[in-house]
Hints:
Radius of gyration: 14 Å
Number of strands: 7
Largest sheet: 5 strands, mixed
Helix content: 25-40%
Order of helices and strands: HHEEEEEHEE
Oligomer: single chain
Amino acid sequence: MNQDDRTYAVIGACFEVYNQMGCGFLEAVYQECLKIELGLREIPFVDQQEIKLYYKENELEQRYIPDFLCYDEVIVELKALTELSTEHHAQLLNYLKASRLQTGLLVNFGHHPKLEYKRMVL
């Protein structure tokens, strides 16, 4: 399974959660539902795991804790907002750069009438 297939699998799980739950819940509710859905789909993941950050080959003391890390390489950051802003996009992009990971998904369950997501690749 290549990286595109992996991100599409995660996005599919997010759509299923949105189809079942709709919008209007807190982010924590969607996180718990997605945890179940990823497990049902046998998508390997860890939730709330610290990721090391780097600056010029130096490991930082600060850590980043994404909502999910799928397949050991795809950061999944969840939101439950009316609309994503450029700051949310920049945040995920910065985490990708500093963590040295290549792919991230910014997923917004608070958007109506459909799931909003952005796939970012360095």
